[in-house]
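In response to the reviewer comment on reproducibility (Comment 2.3), we provide here a single inverse folding case reported in full, input and output, so that an independent group could reproduce the run without further information from us. The structure tokens appear first.
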């Protein structure tokens, strides 16, 4: 049986995560940028995201996302998953997944959050979020673990195209807060000792939902 394009992308993502991604060569800033083919962007993003310390899950469908999120919550013993965006709430209600939908005891119990994002940057493995969503400025920064639900159609090659995607999402205007998250928060300011979670989440987890249209025969 011939392998479908979707199966090919999933296989290549899995294969790329089984071995360490090669370190990129020093960039040539004089060379023009040529976007990678669309079916390579998911692989490029997965490699870059994992290399910077992110935890990556590929989701073939919404049901697959529900299963993986349920398993992750159970494995990490997450009792307080804060979700403030109406569409995400509706999605999790549909699956019967437990979450905290208001701000009650947020400061005391913010174990984890689940948000959407504006775009995913393939070359750097970065997640672009803004304060324009119902998650606001805090939900992607304050909790110990930041979980993100994104779609394959949101992947762009470079940061410039990511910022353009943000403008396109908001009628040509940039939100008052934009954050480019590349891996978990880390610092080595104190005695050169690397510390995770000093200025933001200790871990960032991305669930990439395949929203490519099904192939027709």
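Designed residues, in position order:
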């Amino acid at each position: 049986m011939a392998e479908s394009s979707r199966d090919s992308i999933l296989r290549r993502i899995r294969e790329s995560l089984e071995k360490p991604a090669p370190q990129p060569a020093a960039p040539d800033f004089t060379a023009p940028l040529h976007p990678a083919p669309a079916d390579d962007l998911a692989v490029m993003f997965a490699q870059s995201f994992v290399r910077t310390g992110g935890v990556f899950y590929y989701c073939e469908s919404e049901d697959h996302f529900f299963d993986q999120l349920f398993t992750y919550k159970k494995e990490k013993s997450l009792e307080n998953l804060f979700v403030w965006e109406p569409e995400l709430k509706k999605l999790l209600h549909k699956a019967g997944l437990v979450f905290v939908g208001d701000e009650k005891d947020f400061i005391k119990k913010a174990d984890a959050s689940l948000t959407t994002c504006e775009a995913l940057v393939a070359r750097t493995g970065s997640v672009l979020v803004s304060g324009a969503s119902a998650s606001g400025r805090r939900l992607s920064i304050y909790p110990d673990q930041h979980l993100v639900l994104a779609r394959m159609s949101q992947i762009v090659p470079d940061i410039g195209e990511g910022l353009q995607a943000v403008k396109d999402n908001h009628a040509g205007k940039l939100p008052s807060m934009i954050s480019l998250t590349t891996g978990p928060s880390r610092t080595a300011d104190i005695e050169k000792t690397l510390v995770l979670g000093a200025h933001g989440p200790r871990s960032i987890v991305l669930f990439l939902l395949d929203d490519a249209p099904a192939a027709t025969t």
